[in-house]
Amino acid sequence: MELKRQEPSPFFAEGNWPSLALLVMAILMWGRPLQAAEEKKPEKKKEPPRIVVVLPLGIVPGVTNKIKIRGLNLTNVTDLHFAGITEPVDFKIKSSGKADVPKEQDTKKWGDTQLEVELRLPESTSPGTNVFTVVSPDGESEPHVLVVVPAKELVLEKEPNGSFRQAQPIEFGKIMQGVIGEAKDVDVFRFEGKAGTQIFAEVSASKYGSLLDSILTLYDDHAHIIATTDDTETGTDAILRVTLPADGKYFLSLIDAHDRGGAACVYHLVVTCPK
Question: What is the set of domains in the chain, with CATH numbers?
């Protein structure tokens, strides 16, 4: 049987080795984009804005209020929407930026960004609570409470008021609007009372987004504790009910249960004398 000599494939001929090298390089280069695509991580979806608290808590209708809206992802907010207010609401976003967070506090709870806004609600806006949202290119926030207070019912807390000697007078039925501005801050208020009178004192703070966990303590004129209260069954806003034991001066102190303080620890305090 005659064996025939096989000629080498033209592809592997001595003169064609560069073609083989080019083919291998082409395969490697073609696979590289696929590998890069597989390794590329998907872009993280940007989160919509979130409101934590409005500073101060109360908005007076019919006048221009300068407020701060504190929360998360607020730096690119472009619009505010108000529910339940049929007339036009005038507002202007004056600035946006970072907000200070106290040391060792949770940024998600305190909010690390804020808006400075000039806001004028129609004079006909009813007192009570309303809601609003903020809007950015990344979405719209969940609704947040807006507290509307008539100017005649609002009294502003004045510092210094951290002792019995510096205690600020408080009027029954008025809304005291204040803030526990720093760690271990104490706000003290005073009033005159008669024996047998029932006193009702209520803090509104956390239910509106404030970071304040309030404690109320009532003292007599000799610095004796008459009553103290912290949390209730419904939340961390303190409510105190007490019958006064004697005629004279009384002092009501307000603190944070954890000795915290800061711009987000705002509150409303109302003391009444139910009949």
Answer: 50-149 (2.60.40.10), 152-272 (2.60.120.380)
- Whether residue 52 contacts residue 262, with contact meaning beta carbons closer than 8 Å, is answered with no
For residues 6 and 4, what is the distance between their CA atoms, to the nearest angstrom? 6
Stated pTM of the model: 0.84
What is the bridge-based pairing of β-strands 144-148 and 58-59?
Answer: parallel
The pLDDT of residue 84 is 84
pLDDT tens by residue, 108-122:
999 999 999 999 999
In whole angstroms, give the CA distance from residue 127 to residue 209: 19
Provide the β-strand partners of residue 178: 267
User: How far is 158 from 168, CA to CA, in rounded Å?
Assistant: 7
Characterize the bridge pairing of strands 50-55 and 64-72: antiparallel
Distance CA 178, CA 265 (A): 9
Residue 26 binned pLDDT confidence (cut-offs 50, 70, 90) = low
Tell me how many degrees the CA angle 73-102-240 measures, rounded to the nearest 5: 100
Q: Is 186 exposed, middle or buried (0-12, 13-18, 19+ CB in 10 A)?
A: middle
Pairing between β-strand 128-136 and β-strand 144-148 as defined by DSSP bridges: antiparallel
Rounded to the nearest integer, the mean pLDDT of the chain is 90
DSSP character at residue 42: P
Write down the pLDDT at residue 157. Answer: 98
Whole-number pLDDT of residue 28: 52
Characterize 223-246 residue by residue with b for buried, 16 or more Cβ atoms within 10 angstroms of its Cβ, and e for exposed: eeebbebeeeeeebbbbbebebee
What is the C-alpha separation between 68 and 150, in angstroms, rounded?
19
